[in-house]
Design goal:
about 280 residues; alpha/beta; 7-stranded parallel beta sheet; two-stranded parallel sheet; 9 helices; 11 strands; about 30% helix; NAD(P)-bd_dom_sf; Epimerase_deHydtase
């Protein structure tokens, strides 16, 4: 590998976001590895040109050298994208922290050069107003607290070779909150602002890292448009031909607005899905 170039990428977690991200890198001609928990699903990744590996976290072996050859190849990579959602249950947050710590340690031992951790703007929790990348996080959920703990661990362990990318609420094919709000009555916080980001723009952001590894280690993504929840979800229901949700009367709570303009500048990118009110949900 030439210094600074990313010729091989491994994606831990080829789900709703990870799979299209992996396919994108395959189309760019980059050697792409991906993981799934299920062996058959991991093998099926080959149909998309992805080197699939069955990987269950936490890794159970203390000695990384004793891992299967394919797993060694997976971790011996120029860039590891860690895209692991928290599980369910009362211990899910602590389990996620333990899983990613073990994953990180194994990756480092087996030759991984750089890591990107897909995090969440839930780390901003109780923050209000305009949120910049430098805003001090104040998570108020177990998941938000777990993600912040993982961020700190990876940045401390990897230094300048680690990046954190916090995603706002994800929308895209077969994923849109209006499905759950349509027709509901008495929904609260209608005047709160939405913070959403489309799958395509997330892929663009990660792809830009191949060309430019920013000095800023904490980035976040959100569309530039932030309509109120009532305005947005009523419009989406209308565009999708669904029953409109009904919100209760509420005041503007001055809730958080994720400003990702600086991240877009650092990554030399423009979001393709900034005009949220004009795009029907992809149900």
């Amino acid at each position: 590998m030439q210094q600074g170039l990313i010729n091989k990428i491994s994606i831990c977690g080829c789900g709703w976001f990870g799979l299209p991200l992996a396919k994108h890198f395959v189309q760019l001609g980059i050697e792409t590895w991906g993981s799934k928990q299920d062996t058959e699903k991991a093998q099926a990744l080959a149909e998309s040109g992805i080197h699939g590996v069955a990987l269950t976290l936490p890794l159970s072996l203390e000695d990384p050298a004793a891992l299967a050859p394919q797993i060694k190849q997976f971790f011996n990579t120029d860039l590891l994208v860690i895209n692991v959602p928290p599980g369910r249950g009362k211990d899910a947050a602590e389990e996620l922290i333990a899983k990613i710590k073990r994953l990180s340690d194994t990756a480092k031992a087996l030759g991984c050069r750089k890591v990107v951790f897909i995090s969440t703007t839930a780390v901003y929790g109780t923050c209000k107003g305009v949120i910049k990348e430098t805003t001090e996080p104040r998570p108020n959920t177990l998941s938000g607290k777990a993600h912040l703990a993982i961020e700190k661990y990876l940045l401390a362990e990897w230094g300048s070779k680690a990046l954190v990318v916090r995603f706002s609420g994800l929308i895209g094919p077969n994923r849109h909150p209006v499905r759950f709000l349509s027709g509901r009555q008495g929904i609260e916080n209608g005047m709160d602002r939405v913070n959403l980001i489309h799958l395509d723009d997330c892929i663009t952001a990660i792809s830009q890292l191949l060309n430019h590894w920013p000095q800023q280690q904490v980035l976040h993504l959100a569309s530039a448009q932030h309509p109120t929840r009532e305005e947005y979800y009523c419009k989406m229901a209308q565009l999708a031909g669904l029953p409109l949700p009904v919100f209760t009367d509420s005041i503007d709570q001055n809730t958080k607005v994720i400003d990702a303009a600086q991240t877009c500048q650092w990554l030399s990118m423009n979001n393709d899905h900034d005009n949220l009110l004009s795009e029907p949900p992809e149900l």
